[in-house]
Amino acid sequence: MNRRIQTARALAALFLVLCLAACGPGGPTGIAPTLTKPAAAAGETGSAPTATVVIEEQPAAPVEEQSPVYLDSQAPAETRAADLLARMTLEEKIGQMTQVEKNSIHPEAITRLHIGSLLSGGGGAPAINTPEAWAEMVDGFQAYAMRTRLGIPLIYGVDAVHGHNNLKGATIFPHNIGLGAANDPALVERIARATALEMAATGIRWNFAPVVAVPQDIRWGRTYEGFSENTEIVTALGAAYVRGLQNASEGGDLSHPEAVLATPKHYIGDGGTLWGTSPVPAFEIDRGDVPVDEATLRALYLPPYQAAIAAGAQSIMVSFNSWNGTKLHAHKYLLTDVLKGELGFEGFLVSDWKAIDEIPGSAYSDVVTSINAGLDMIMVPSDYPAFIDNVRRAVDNGDIPVARIDDAVRRILTVKFKLGLFEHPYSDPALMSQVGSPEHRELARQAVAKSLVLLQNEGQVLPLSKETGLLFVGGEAADNMGIQCGGWTIEWQGKKGDILPGVTILEAIQATVADPAGVRYDPKGQFADEAGAGGQPAVAEVGIAVVGESPYAEGAGDRADLSLTAADVALIQAMRQRSQKLVVILVSGRPLVITDQLSLADAWVAAWLPGSEGQGVADVLFGDLPFTGRLPYTWPRSIDQVLDRQSPLYPLGYGLQ
Ligand code: BGC
Ligand code: BGC
């Protein structure tokens, strides 16, 4: 054991002692607030555990031999997993298959029920959202797992889908739609590497990313999470992301403490659901049905998984959607026969959030159906006592074969060994400086610049001169970190406002022009106080209107209408009157219908959801870097043509230089 691990262990042990001291012998109530808060107080997650489950306490007996094979770091992961599996009770095995949302668990239950995995859902930050508090939280949970009889570490997962985006201070990269516009696998690989370093600093070695959906209908609220509507682009960028996260190209492997397990998601048909088929009343298309034949399903949606597996993917998340009426979480043919059989996937399958509950039937039959279909770990995420009880009863009743349980646990343990979690269960404080580092922010800025797509440039108004005199910047999105980051940032749904450190588009413009005093900002684009000669309303040399979408995630972003809002149209019209040249920058998670407004502005730029480094927008607007982005999605002329690729406003791959 090296010094770093010893220190981390000592710290974690101390933390544990402090927690126990704070809590007293009366039970878990009030255990250190940084460790956990009840789901209700967090106001973001599912119901608190309800069912009671009777699981006998394991006597905390040490393993018999001095040096069991599974603790031998030199032995192959598969050998270690087999050795460990042979020592485990059924309760210990079921625990490994259980993934609990961190606000829903009392930490002592991690030890008592041998829980194998925790996650932070969208917005699942500790009470104080700093990198140090994250590391302390994750290490604190880990200490409870390390106390189990066999000392099996947790694998902690998070959605770091555009940087470590629940963490305040992390570098926020453009959402995947922007990376699809940049279409540069080497860039994506570097972004994934940077994301892994920022995650590892907080003790998290598992990312529920990349999304390798191939969205076919941009009305879907997850369009921006997908790289492109084009399977080849998704395939190349998804595999690059896996390599970057898992440190594969630097001659490294998963066992490196700076490598993070990737999770291509959501298998399969993600992005192919039909409008109006969502099972969730408030949604339209998210989680719906994919009504295509098998050849189409394979052609459109399978290649990203083949490439990700070839790139070393060891975990895959199953999709909420159904295929011709059967939920993927219940689809033995697609999960077991195709993925694990035909494609030779040797890692483990994790379910999506509460997704087995969407399978028709009871909670008991959901457990039986999904595990028998091939799910290895279940993202429960809250009512874990009931889940554990159901699995236990299903095995006792012979409804789930023990061999299936063993296969699931063997897969999970093998990945834990490959990750080196038994050797490095805790965070490495030396990595802390990686979070939001200047290098990562510089990389994000480059990615933003490469993601911009120039849609129109009448009279070559772009690039702008840095010597521009009076410059009007309008639109709430121009100076709003939350809007430019979009969903999955600090909160699951994202949030408007000054939610994390970074550079807004307005700040970037001010930092780029020769005379920042010439830049005036009005979120409403009225510039009522700006008078010119003779008291007439001043006319700016250049106006920049920044408009688009407010943050959303998943089905909450399903939209039947993708027009600009009336307020945005009014803003563009007002700024047209007050600007000699007008540039519109769209900050949005997908193409919007702009046909009727196009002629109002000289230039139109799609900036997608650029993230924390808005300077990349100004770098291109003012000509320090060229426009190179290409549309990753077809841009419809009208909403009626949203599924029509024949006569779009702009085709896939379009982008002016
Ligand atoms: C999403 C997944 C995500 C999970 C955990 C689900 O609702 O579909 O993409 O990984 O929640 O946050
Ligand atoms: C969680 C997300 C999850 C979503 C699914 C939210 O409460 O924070 O992570 O994706 O629920 O509905």
Describe what you observe in this structure:
The chain has 657 residues and is an alpha/beta fold. The protein contains 20 helices and 17 strands. It has a 6-stranded mixed sheet, sandwiched between helices. A 5-stranded parallel sheet has the order 4-3-2-1-11. Strands 5-7-10 form a 3-stranded parallel sheet. Helix 19 (566-577) links the parallel strand 15 (540-548) and strand 16. Helix 7 (176-182) crosses helix 16, helix 8 (185-201) runs antiparallel to helix 16 (438-451) and helix 9 (231-245) packs parallel to helix 11. The longest helix is centred in the first third of the chain and has 21 residues, at 3-23. The relative contact order is 0.12.
What are the defining features of this structure?
657 residues, alpha/beta, five-stranded parallel sheet, 20 helices, 17 strands, 33% helix, globular, disordered N terminus, binds beta-D-glucopyranose
Low-confidence stretches: 1-61
Bound molecules: beta-D-glucopyranose
Number of strands: 17
- Across the major sheet, the strand order is 12-17-16-15-13-14
Shape: globular
Q: Provide mean pLDDT, rounded.
A: 92
> What share of the residues lie within helices?
25-40%
Characterize the largest beta sheet: strand count, sense, and whether it forms a barrel.
6 strands, mixed
| Number of discrete helical segments | 20
Alpha carbon gap, first and last residue: 55 Å
